[in-house]
Amino acid sequence: MNKIFKVGLIGCGHISETYFRGHDYFNNFQIIKCADINTENAKKMLSDCIEIISKSEKDRQETLKEKYNMQEITSAEKRELQQIILKNDEMSEEDQILLKNLSSK
Questions:
Q1: pTM above 0.85, yes or no
Q2: How buried is 27 (Cβ within 10 angstroms: 0-12 exposed, 13-18 middle, 19+ buried)?
Q3: Distance CA 70, CA 17 (A)
Q4: Which residue, 17, 42, 81, 87, could crosslink 64 as a Cys pair with Cβ 3.0–4.6 Å?
């Protein structure tokens, strides 16, 4: 039986989103508290991350592709999109080109 660690997140900057997404991959921790010097930042980060987690990966992939096409994608989102594409059973030619473009500067 795997132990589930209860985690409190201090600071709700951009990296905290990565921790929320990490739960899907590791499943051995549970974020139970969020804190930030700015309470509104903590509340927004929590609600944003809950929304992200609740979407299916396919929806998330489409959202990230749209952001990429509009050149509004962050480097963290580029890495996430790469990971989602690589997890697919089959890769379309379009995804192959996108993956190559995501990997280059």
A1: no
A2: exposed
A3: 21
A4: 81
